[in-house]
Every structure is written in C-alpha cells, then in structure tokens.
Design a protein that fits this description.
Helices cover 14% and strands 38% of the residues. The chain is mainly beta and 252 residues long.
Length: 252
C-alpha cells in the first residue's frame, strides 16, 4: 500500500509545480506614463520621492460625487471637514495636519484664503472642468511655504481642444436642493476657450449658513508658433454663513 501512495504524492506535486511555473511566465505590459506636475520640476510618478495619489478625469466621472471635497473624501490620508453636501464651507487636512497646513493649487496657482486660511476648498472650479487632481502627502514647505507643511492638493483644469461643444449637467433633490453646470467650448481661430457656469442652492439646510452659491471658471489656449499659451481665471460668490459656527448665538 505504501508503495502506491508515494508515486501518487509525487505525481500531484509535479502537476502543482508545473501549474505554478506557467504563472511565472513573463508577460510584457506597457502602461501610460503619469506625470506629476505639483512640483518645481514635473516628475514621472514612478520616480516621485514622496507619496502621491493621482485622480484622473475618467475616475472622477465614475465616482458618486458632486464636488471636489466629496471626491477628496475617497483619498486615503485626507481628513475632510464640511458643513453640508456639495462642499459647503469645506477644509482638508492631510495626515493629521490642520487645514492651514494644506496648500490648495489650481493649475499650480495658490488659491488659499490669505485672510482667514479657512474654507480653502470653496473653489470656482467644478468636477466637469477637472482633468486630474494630484495629492502630495508630506511636508513641502521648503518649496511652497508654510501652507504646504501637511501636503499639497493640485487641481489641473481641462484645456480647450479647439473643438466646439456644449455640456449641461443638472441634478436635484429634496428641500429644493439643486445643482447645475453649463460648459461651452468656443473656438475663435487661434484662441480656444472653455467657459463654465455653476450654481448650487438648497433650502433644506439650517438658516444662516448661506447655501446659495454660484461661480464661473474659464480656461483658454492661445496657439502660437512656439506652442500653446494657457491661461485661466475664475470667480465665485459664497457668503460666509457663520451662524453657530463659532458659538451658539441666536439667529435673528
């Protein structure tokens, strides 16, 4: 009986080793390069010396979110604080830092509030205008200053591609909550401009918090003989709405 068991065990082991050997075959895979721009010198992701998360436009479209703060809630290491949906009065901390120690950039430009350092994610740009978001964890004060002690969040806007198109996005909910965004790409010969108008409002939130916001964001490309010149600007109207923010005083 023992003489039969030993050959059977050896046969099973040989089959198992053969199957594992098939898995170890080298299969070449080519991945698209990912460039990190939230640095003084653009760096390929695989050569970055710090923890970096990049959220692409395709990932943004597939996520169940309506604003940048809601999107950042899904990023590991970020502590989001907001008073309501759609990013109302939102701040971000990275790896235990305060909101004043996180630098917010749009296309590499500092958009932190210089007066209060608060509500740093009250941004004129909406998800439909974003090409990707780069989250760099860890101190970057030597490059960016005190606001980058905890990390950097760099939002890259979509560039117009000299093709005319219009896109309208509308959503609504209970208590007269609604959100709308209208985007239009204008092709004016050597200049192409992407212009977006956005509006968020709700009557279902508590009084004195001013959930009634609108903004405009524009990015343009000028076709020069030496290449493309990109520039962007934005404007947003958001009241502070500090009822019961600092203390429980009565509303009038």
């Amino acid at each position: 009986m023992k003489t039969l068991i030993i050959p059977i065990i050896l046969l099973v082991l040989s089959k198992t080793i053969t199957s594992f050997a098939g898995v170890d075959e080298d299969i070449p895979t080519t991945l698209e390069p990912v460039l990190v721009t939230a640095s003084r010198m653009p760096t390929k992701l695989e050569k970055a010396t710090r923890s970096v998360t990049i959220i692409s436009a395709g990932e943004i479209e597939n996520m169940p979110v309506n604003s940048v703060p809601e999107l950042l809630n899904y990023v590991a290491g970020i502590d989001m604080r907001q008073r309501n949906i759609h990013g109302v009065q939102a701040d971000a901390g990275i790896r235990g830092s305060s909101f004043e120690q996180v630098l917010i950039l749009i296309d590499g430009v500092n958009v932190n509030d210089p007066q209060t350092g608060h509500h740093s994610l009250d941004l004129p740009i909406v998800l439909e205008d974003i090409e990707k978001i780069e989250v760099l964890r860890g101190h970057g004060s030597s490059l960016y200053g005190a606001n980058a002690f905890g990390g950097v969040i760099n939002i890259i806007s979509k560039k117009p591609d000299f093709k005319r198109r219009t896109k309208l996005t509308v959503s609504s909910g209970s208590n007269e909550t609604y959100r709308g965004n209208l985007s239009r790409v204008f092709d004016l010969g050597r200049v192409s401009t992407r212009l977006s108008l956005s509006k968020d409002k709700s009557d279902g939130y508590r009084a004195g918090t001013d959930f009634d916001n609108w903004g405009i964001f524009s990015s343009s490309s000028l076709d020069l003989s030496a290449g493309l010149l990109d520039f962007s600007w934005g404007f947003q109207e958001k009241e502070f709405g500090a009822d019961k923010f600092y203390s429980f005083y009565p509303s009038w």
